[in-house]
Amino acid sequence: xxxxxxxxLPVQTTSLKAQLRRAERLKKLRYGALIAxxxxxxxxxxxxxxxxxxxxxxxxxxxxxxxxxxxxxxxGWSQQGLPDEAAYAALQADLIQAKGSEELAxxxxxxxxxxxxxxxxxxxxxxxxxxEPPTGPAKAALIEMDARWGxxxxxxxxxxxxxxxxxxxxxTALDLRRDEAGHxxxxxxxxxxxxxxFGRTLWMSFVVTLCCCVLGFPVAYLLARLPARxxxxxxxxxxxxxxxxxxxxxxxxxxxxxxxxxxNQALMALxxxxxxxxxxxxxxxxxxxxxxxxxxxxxxxxYSVMKGISPVYLRAAVSLGCPPFKSFWKVYFxxxxxxxxxxxxxxxxxxxxxxxxPALLGGPKEQMVSYFVAFYTNETIxxxxxxxxxxxxxxxxxxxxxxxxxxxxxxxxxxxxx
Length: 418
Prior knowledge:
Layout: H1 11-58, H2 62-66, H3 68-73, H4 85-98, H5 102-114, H6 118-131, H7 138-145, H8 152-161, H9 168-173, E1 176-178, E2 184-186, H10 194-225, H11 228-239, H12 246-257, H13 262-269, H14 283-306, H15 312-319, H16 324-352, H17 356-361, H18 369-379, H19 383-417
Antiparallel strand pairs: 1-2
Helix pairs in contact: 1-19, 4-6, 5-6, 10-11, 10-14, 10-16, 12-14, 14-16, 15-16, 16-19, 18-19
Subcellular location: Cell membrane
Pfam family, one: BPD_transp_1
Main location: membrane
């Protein structure tokens, strides 16, 4: 008997499957339409600025914009000896054409960052060439005009900075630089300051975070154990600093901590000290103000975690014969680690980027990385250096957060498994 073909699916069943697929596609499109505004918002307000910041840290447009023909002529140069006549002629033409332009001034300033005297060399050569254009060979004319054009180090510097991207700013932010041969070496003694600044920033942020942990834990524990009415009243006191500007709070601490302020007057009236303590324009004042400002960011995550911990656990441990302090340390404290970790990382990240408090309450030795970012942005208009410092700070925070999250995550998981 011949095999009979399987019966064809009814038209109604095929149509139902198509309708289901169409409904799934429409559902996905609706979900995508709901998520799209948030995704675009995050891209343009978060990812795009970070990408622009990282690009600015390595962007090097000045030389190749002001000296395009020279950049092209030096593209195949081996950087040994002196370039050929074509490179000298290209430089001569670029200097004559760019004389008096903002692009040439920016290129001269950029080269002067790596070697003092390059700005005067570029600007004077452009002025002399524009006043009396030479008729003979460009190489001989430029060397006769200034002997530095006959040095290979000068041309190596120009060729190195003619690239569209550079590591100069990142190396400077790490107290490194490139020597005349292009090798990475340490900055000369007395010129490297940024590693100390980064170390100071991380250390001060760690101290502030530790102080907030020590002070915030008992406050959050008290708020979690008190009746709701009393706890809500005290929570208003915790949130009260949020209603006042940071600048106003820093100014108030200057008044309170100065030599004739309330703190020194009270200590002298009690006979604790004979002379006023110096509590402002040093690290002590910075620590006090930053801890006061950031303490609520530690208390709130701790309180939210502690509020969800039932007191039954402690009573059960004590009833089984465990001493009160050991019960607290072995039973209660491990359950508060997520709140402690969240508050700690929040306070640390906020304090690592502080600018106003160290600038107003601290001295020169208390300035953090943010001070130098503001200095290069507002004073010297060196966007590359400001972006490099910001990028390195971002990388440091990301690395520390990854390590911290891994360690705290493992600790939290182990505590929960117990």
